[in-house]
Amino acid sequence: MATGTTRNKVALAPGHSLMDWIRLGNSGNDLTGVGGKILSVSKSELAKHNKRTDAWLAIRGTVYNVTQYMDFHPGGVDELVRGIGTDATKLFSEIHAWVNYESILQKCVVGRLVNEELFKLPDILKAATDVSENELNMDWFQQLGFLCFVFYTKTPYPEVSITLKQPNQFCFALNGKTRCITLHKNVNWPCVVKIVADIGKVQVKLIKKVLGLWPTFGTLTTTRNIQIDYWKCELLNSFDVTPNAKFLLFKYQQNLYNHVYPGRHIYIKANVNGQVVSRPYTPVWPLVETTEYGIISEDTLCLLVKSYPNGKLSRHLCSLNQGDLIEVSRPQGSFECWTSKTNLILLAAGTGITPMLPIIWNALHSSIKKYNITLLYFNKKETCIIWKKYLDQKSAAYSSRLTVHYILSEEENSMGDTKGHIDESVITKYFPTLNEESLNEHAVCVCGPPGFNKLCEKLIVQQGYKKDDYFVFG
Ligand code: HEM
Predict the structure, then answer these.
(1) How far is the CA of 270 from the centre of ligand 1 (A)?
(2) What sequence ranges are listed for the domain Cytochrome b5 heme-binding (predicted)?
(3) How much is the pLDDT for 38?
(4) Per-residue confidence (pLDDT) for residue 406, from 0 to 100
(5) What pLDDT is attached to residue 365?
(6) What is the average per-residue pLDDT within 145-155?
(7) Rounded mean pLDDT of 322-349?
(8) 3-state helix, strand, coil in the chain (%, to 5)
(9) How many C-beta atoms surround the C-beta of residue 427 within 10 A?
(10) Which among 233, 243, 310, 299 is positioned nearest to 267, based on CA atoms?
(11) How far apart are CA 214 and CA 210, in angstroms?
(12) Under a CB-based contact definition with an 8 Å cutoff, are residues 181 and 169 in contact?
């Protein structure tokens, strides 16, 4: 793995082991330095906290105060200092993506890293937009059979998880802040959730157990900050998709809806032969329309996993039996659908199709605009193509908006597309010729093995795409 540094663990001073750190976290000392409030932090605010004695850094959208952690960092103070005052996601992942920073730094959360634009707003609007405010911006309405809550988080891509703790106790965590409502009467699970990501509107529909109009929705009972790291999930069902890839359906043990945006991922953690292993996976929700797997309910976690001969976790997942447990983290990642673009070009190789499926689904069903999508899907043989039937059905149903080209490297291509690998000729053949204006309308996503990703990035940069116009899943 490229680290850009000589990787060496340092000898920590006595009293600075992980156990000591956990003890400090549980001591009641405020490690956040901001009194435990959840703040909205701009990049320029973050940059001010760049000293050893006042050190903040951001990882995957969350800002942490690491001042107290300095002497506990196994890589040493000087290494940790390299990340302070910045969004250290890339640096952190390059060195030790496997480190469970969320758990280690759970008592150090300062807030969320937010777009600079927010801070250019007049103060009056800024105050209304600040996620730290306690006030809840909420509407509700009902019909005989259901009631519906609408939350306005005022932050794009809000973090959303929803649980039904009791038939009449409904809790929702928005951007890390949890609130509970004791409902007037009982409701069923699962709920139906709709999120308008770019304006931060969240709508939750709860189905009443008994038909009737309620005089009130109930009472808002608690306001707490609960930082949950991992939830337990049990395997409901598994299906073979190709000879070495499976479609796995999991149910959260509690009644939980954990919203993962298209292109974002969760960490899966499992105990494999006595060792805890954790890796990122992109859920392939929502494939709710596919009938060959039965009806998939909204709160199901759907994973597509390829079993690699040396892949500890992938082999473990593919060998799970019904009822076996795994642990699943909160959503992570920084991918945002480009609402300013209209044409998406997706380059996927093998299981690199996983993040593309929700992106395609979302783009085809967007209520905001009509996206056009071109998918170039690279595989060795036709039998390796994952969900070809599904992709073909979608491209037939949306023929003017979704075009799929299958590119095979190891056999003749009966589908009429190129035989070969990703190279300049493939790009020239399938990419539209762009001028400066039409370039602004296009965005490219890439997902495959590291060599594929690197080559694609080189080729799309050659085509004139700028950093903001493409995203490489790695
Ligand atoms: C962003 C700037 C950071 C840099 C440049 C950095 C660098 C390093 C380096 C060079 C090592 C030694 C790697 C080895 O030889 O195994 C290390 C280890 C470690 N770092 Fe960091 N680190 C950073 C941030 C963090 C943060 C924020 C955390 C906290 C959660 C953290 C937790 C750890 C842990 C737990 C290890 C030991 C890993 C192991 O034993 O496998 N680091 N770090």
Answers:
(1) 22
(2) 38-114
(3) 73
(4) 95
(5) 82
(6) 89
(7) 85
(8) 25, 35, 45
(9) 18
(10) 233
(11) 11
(12) yes
Residue 386 parent element (H or E): none
Residue located via tokens 């796995």: 248
pTM, to two decimals: 0.67
Cα separation of the two ends of the chain: 12
> Could you tell me if 403 and 377 are in contact, meaning their C-beta atoms sit under 8 angstroms apart?
no
3-state secondary structure 389-418: HHHHHHHHHCCCCEEEEEEECCCCCCCCCC
Tell which atom from ligand 1 comes closest to the C-alpha of 66.
27
**Nearest residue by C-alpha to atom 5 in ligand 1:** 79
Atom of ligand 1 nearest to the CA of 98: 41
**Distance separating alpha carbons of residues 198 and 92, to the nearest angstrom:** 27
Least confident of 210-214, 377-381, 422-426: 422-426
The DSSP string of 125-187 is: HHHHH-TT-----EEEEE-SSEEEEEEE--SSS--EEEEEEETTEEEEEETTEEEEEEESS-B
CB neighbour list of residue 426: distance below 8 Å, 6 or more residues apart: 376, 407, 418, 420
Ligand 1 centroid, distance to 7 Cα (angstroms): 9
Q: Please give the average per-residue pLDDT across 314-327, as a whole number.
A: 94
**Pocket perturbation via mutation, ligand 1, pick of 8, 31, 73 by most ligand atoms within 8 A of CB:** 73
Burial of 76 from C-beta contacts in 10 A (0-12 / 13-18 / 19+): middle
For 438-455, the pLDDT digits (tens) are 777 889 999 999 999 999
CB contact burial 219-250 (16+ within 10 A = b; e otherwise): eeeeeeeeebebbebebbebeebbebbbbbbb
Residue predicted with more confidence, 450 or 119 = 450
pLDDT of 119 > 50? The answer is no
- Write down the pLDDT at residue 226: 52
Which residues, judged by CB distance below 6 Å to any ligand atom, belong to the binding site of ligand 1?
5, 7-9, 57, 66, 73-75, 79-80, 82-83, 88, 91-92, 95-96, 99, 101, 104-105
Q: Give pLDDT, residue 127.
A: 41
| 132 exposure class (CB count in 10 Å sphere: 0-12, 13-18, 19+) | middle
| Torsions phi, psi for 473 (to 5 deg) | -80, 130
Q: Give just the sign of the alpha carbon dihedral 287, 293, 299, 304.
A: negative
Minimal-distance CA residue to ligand 1 atom 22: 80
d(CA 289, CA 389): 13
